[in-house]
Each structure stands twice: as structure tokens, then as C-alpha cells.
Design goal:
With about 400 residues, the chain is an alpha/beta fold. It is built from 12 helices and 16 strands. It has helices at about 1-15, 35-55, 75-90, 100-115, 145-155, 170-185, 205-215, 235-240, 255-260, 280-295, 300-320, 325-330, and strands at about 25-30, 60, 65-70, 95, 115-120, 135-140, 160-165, 190-195, 220-225, 245-250, 270, 335-340, 340-345, 355, 355-365, 370-380. Keywords: Amino-acid transport, Signal, Transport.
Length: about 400
């Protein structure tokens, strides 16, 4: 690592170099913008992951870790510039980010240009480890296919008719494409698709089209929603009384703040990436206990993801014995590591972390301010046939 170079130069030149952080990790995330809540969780989780994986020292083999924070502002061009600044001016060894899929996609070519590792967390779009992927990209966050396949397992019963509703950008489009592909292997039927701009506040026209597509169908009828950030349409759609047509809403898990709206939907089914009470393992036990002690609230969806990214970075550097990119790639391809969700493994072909997901049903407890995703069953990583989508 850098320490060896420092010692060698000191011996040759007879003078000491200025003290500097030995290992620099850049965190490029959307500290401001519509995904600010997700980003804050990711930052807390990353720092807790680095702490946990280093035994509280924030050092690897005696070399200190410094985290350089950059705000990508939920703007792809800013994210691209911030990552270039981190790798170029700040000389970061590797980076973690971004929050939104559009920003993350803009950052991928920068990692390739600088030949530095970018651990993508928590951006979800399939294209990140698909068509836009390059060999410097690893992802601890789940991808759209993992969300979609697990939700298809939860909803894909015989006789179920489904209309999908999603945001009209990479996250929503990729998510629905993966859901459709996964649903085709079940006995459920996709009836129609609807997409809306991310800043939509009036969902009346979308609701009318979706209700009309389903109201005369036989069997169970579901509107499956993929939505991130503000303006989640679930409550507004429910207020339009889809139940008069026998239509129910369905969606995946979400952050605790968003789960407050789920109290309106007891029995709602879907698949979740994380809920703090579900995984039973030593990492999650430490995580929940420490997060409660420090923040007086349980860890959330993206806090768990940030922690997984921090652990992955430390374990990769330990395994590689270096921060050199090629050594890290060799170490990380096929690497398994323990996270709050249990074991994750970077698939060698596209560097996507294979991980379990959780089929849930919402339980309402008056003493809890959000709808509780009660575990129906764990969906193991090996049960989900996640497609390889990269072409490089």
C-alpha cells in the first residue's frame, strides 16, 4: 500500500513526507435533492460498515481510512464531475455511490476513465450492471431484477391480473422490464403498464386508465407500484377507491418513513430488500443495537445498504493486501462477505452482489407508527435466477 512507498521515499531522500491519510474512500451521493433521505441513510450505514469491518479502528493493516464526501445533488452531470474530482484532485483509492440511478449511470464511465473501483450503492437500475457496466463497477445494492423477481414470486399466483405503475426514468423503466420478464415465468398475467414523471402530484388520469384496464378482469387484481422518493402515489390511488372494482395495490418494501403509509394496507404483499427485524445474524444484531443506541431509531433500508458497501470495501482491501485497482478486482470477483442481510457474493461476470430477499405481508400494530413487513419467507439468492445483462 501507500505506506511502503512513503517509507521508501523517506529513506532515499532523507526527509519525511507530509502526513496524509493512507486510504481514501470517496462517497459521492445525493446529499441534496429528492433522494436526500435515502442518501443520509447510505452515509450513516457506510460509516458504520467501515467501523464494524475494522473493529472500530477505522484502519486497515495500520493504515487510516479517510472518507471524502461529495454531493451529487441528484444531477447526473454533477455526479460525474464530483467523482472525477474525487479520483483526480483528491486521489481517492476507490469510491462508493450514487443514490439515484441516473447519477450512478453518469458516474460509471468516470470509474473506467480513471481505472478506479466504484462500489454502486444504493442505485438500483439494471443497466448499471448491464449494458452500461464496466469492469471497475461492483454493486452491493440490489438491482431491479432482484426486486422484480422476488416481487414476482410474491405476487405471481394463478389467476392474478396485474397492471404496473412506475416512474418514467431508468429506475422505473428497468424495474418494470425486469418485473415483466420475471412474471412471465409465473402463472400471473400482466394486463397493462403505466409510467408517470417523477414530479407527478395528480394521479387521476393514470388511476382511471389502470382501473379501466383491470375492472372487468376475473380473479385477483393488483396494481404493482415501483416508486422512489417523494410523491409516492399509493395513498392517492387508494383514496380513489380501487376496491370498488376489487383492485388491490401491491409494492415492494421501503424506508420506515414510507412504511407509515403502508398502515392503510394491512395484508399488502410484496418483497423487501431489508427490514431490521427480519435478518437473524451477528452483523445485523450489532447493527440494530448500535443504530438504536446512537440514533434512537432502527436502521433502515439504505442504512443497511451503506453498511454492506463499507464492509465490502474493507474486506476487499484486506483480501487484496493493497488499494491497487487490479489487485482489488481480483480480490472482489467472487468474494463473499457478511452483511446485515447475511452473506453477499459478488458475481464474477457482472460484479452484482447476490443476496437474499424477503417476501412480506404487512401487519398493522397500533403501537408501531408504520406498517410492519412481517416475514412470509426468505427468498435465497440461489432461488432467484438473476439475468446477466452486461454486454462487455
Amino acid at each position: 500500500m501507500k505506506t511502503r512507498l512513503t517509507v521508501a521515499l523517506t529513506a532515499l531522500c532523507g526527509w519525511a513526507l507530509p502526513a496524509a491519510a493512507d486510504i481514501k474512500i470517496a462517497h459521492v451521493y445525493d446529499k441534496s435533492g429528492g433522494l436526500e433521505a435515502y442518501a443520509r441513510q447510505s452515509q450513516i450505514g457506510l460509516m458504520m460498515g467501515l467501523e464494524y469491518a475494522t473493529g472500530g479502528t477505522m484502519e486497515i493493516n495500520g493504515e487510516k481510512i479517510t472518507v471524502i464526501e461529495k454531493d451529487s445533488q441528484l444531477k447526473p452531470d454533477v455526479g460525474r464531475a464530483m467523482l472525477a474530482e474525487a479520483f483526480g484532485d483528491d486521489e481517492a483509492d476507490l469510491a462508493v455511490g450514487g443514490t439515484g440511478s441516473g447519477v450512478a449511470l453518469a458516474m460509471l464511465p468516470v470509474a473506467e476513465e480513471f481505472e478506479k473501483i466504484l462500489i454502486v450503492e444504493p442505485a438500483v437500475a439494471d443497466t448499471i450492471t448491464g449494458e452500461a457496466w464496466n469492469r471497475y463497477i461492483f454493486r452491493t445494492g440490489r438491482n431491479s431484477s432482484q426486486d422484480a423477481i422476488s416481487n414476482a414470486v410474491a405476487l405471481g399466483r394463478e389467476g392474478v391480473k396485474i397492471v404496473t405503475f412506475a416512474q418514467d426514468y431508468a429506475f422505473g423503466r428497468d424495474g418494470i422490464a425486469a418485473f415483466k420478464e420475471a412474471l412471465a415465468d409465473t402463472k400471473a398475467e400482466l394486463v397493462a403498464e403505466e409510467y408517470a414523471p417523477t414530479d407527478t402530484t395528480d394521479f387521476t388520469a393514470y388511476a382511471e386508465r389502470m382501473f379501466n384496464a383491470l375492472k372487468d378482469q376475473d380473479g385477483e387484481k393488483r396494481i404493482f407500484i415501483i416508486w422512489a422518493g417523494a410523491n409516492n402515489p399509493m395513498s392517492k390511488l387508494q383514496a380513489m377507491d380501487p376496491g370498488r372494482y376489487g383492485i388491490e395495490l401491491a409494492t415492494g418494501g421501503n424506508i420506515l418513513e414510507a412504511l407509515k403509509a403502508y398502515k392503510e394496507f394491512p395484508g399488502l404483499e410484496g418483497s423487501a430488500y431489508y427490514y431490521y427485524e427480519i435478518p437473524q445474524n451477528p452483523v445485523n444484531q450489532w447493527f440494530v443495537k448500535e443504530h438504536m443506541a446512537r440514533y434512537n431509531t432502527p436502521p433502515d433500508f439504505f442504512t443497511a445498504g451503506g453498511m454492506s458497501a463499507g464492509i465490502a470495501a474493507v474486506e476487499a482491501i484486506k483480501k487484496a493486501g493493497s488499494t491497487e485497482t487490479e489487485a482489488l478486482i481480483t480480490a472482489m470477483e467472487g468474494m463473499s462477505f457478511e452483511t446485515p442481510k447475511g452473506t453477499m457474493t459478488f458475481r464474477p461476470e457482472d460484479h452484482q452482489a447476490m443476496q437474499e430477499m424477503y417476501h412480506f405481508k404487512i401487519k398493522v400494530d397500533p403501537a408501531v407508527e408504520w406498517g410492519i413487513p412481517e416475514l412470509v419467507r426468505v427468498i435465497p439468492a440461489e432461488e432467484m435466477k438473476i439475468p446477466l445483462r452486461n454486454t462487455r
